Amino acid sequence: MLVQIERKPAGSRLPEWLRKPRRNADADHELKKMLRSKGLHTVCEEARCPNRNDCFERRAATFMILGDVCSRSCGFCSVKTGRGASMQSLVNEPEEVADAAARLDLRYVVITSVNRDELPDGGAEHFAKTIAAVRNRLPDSKIEVLTPDFKGDSTALRTVLDAEPDTFNHNVETVPRLYGRVRPQADYLQSLRVLNNARRYAPRVVTKSGFMAGLGETESEVFDLLEDLRENEIDVVTIGQYLQPTRAHLPVSEYVHPEIFEKYQQYGEGLGFRAVFSGPLVRSSYMAEMVNERTQAVGRRSEAPGSNLENLVGDF
Asked: Does 304 fall in a domain?
């Protein structure tokens, strides 16, 4: 049955499947107060995630390191753009993240960052220090990192992977045709190289990527993107609805019906991913512990059939 995708008329309200119940605004006050006292940032707040109250109520958060100012200006993201904080001012951040994770008693710790293209290593060493600090405080917890592309620098990527995160995540965000307006300072093939190089360098690490629907992509482009990710041996894929954070950001092209998200999930599962999480409110780091548990329940898939990466991935 053909499912129609609901288009977004100007000024329209969110469809029912994207509306979340109102929550007590004070329910997450204690968590926010603790984070502020440590000078820490979360991508939940900075990127205006629609699930942030759910996470805060569960005393969970995705830590955003390297400050709260990004060197890039992606059309979908509400994180501030500009010159980032000095690294000297962030010297205690790894230990503060570890202490906050310990106080929250997190069994699964997710660490992401802004882009810091002005740094020689893009902030890779800071990632490694944060992973080490969390591992020291919470030796039995799992750690997932959601990193930038480090401008394709393989040395920076190795620095992060040598710190031994359990999951390595780098989001492709959208289909290649839309990169010019969605991720103008990024490169689709470079993101695929980062993911493939992570798989080759650290084969035991779970690899993960995600992208948004509703930016103007077609179904066939989504299928092609899933095929590209599978050919690069990604384990886990997340697909969610793009929501405009402010009027200054890219408009929503369409509200994708939940049945289309289910269609994407079924297609991805048919390609052989260990897990595909697809739905309007799915986000890369949302319920990451549950995502990891479900992923671990599935054995490592065999290599993608017919992969031919010689022209895509250089020596690592």
From this structure: no
Residue 265 φ then ψ, to 5°: -60, -45
Q: What is the extent of the structural domain holding 87? A: 29-296
The model's pLDDT over 61-114, given as tens digits with 9 standing for 90+, comes to 789 999 888 898 887 787 888 888 899 999 999 999 999 999 888 999 999 999
Q: Which two tokens stand for residue 93?
A: 């951040």
Please check whether residue 61 lies inside any domain of the structure.
yes
Angle, nearest 10°, between helix axes 188-201 and 219-231?
30
Tokens describing residue 296: 């671990």
CB within 8 Å of 1: residues ≥ 6 apart: none
Beta-bridge mates of residue 108: 142
User: Hunting for tokens 């307006």 — which residue is that?
Assistant: 181
Give the contacts of 233 (CB within 8 A, at least 6 positions apart): 196, 199, 207, 303, 304, 307
Burial of 84 (0-12, 13-18, 19+ CB in 10 A): buried
- For residue 123, which of 95, 92, 151 has the smallest C-alpha distance? 151
Q: Please return the burial class of 25, using the count of CB atoms within 10 Å of its CB with bins 0-12, 13-18 and 19+.
A: exposed
Residue 310 lies in a domain: no
- For the chain, how many structural domains are there in total? 1
What is the CATH classification number for the domain harbouring 106? 3.20.20.70
pTM of the entire predicted model: 0.86
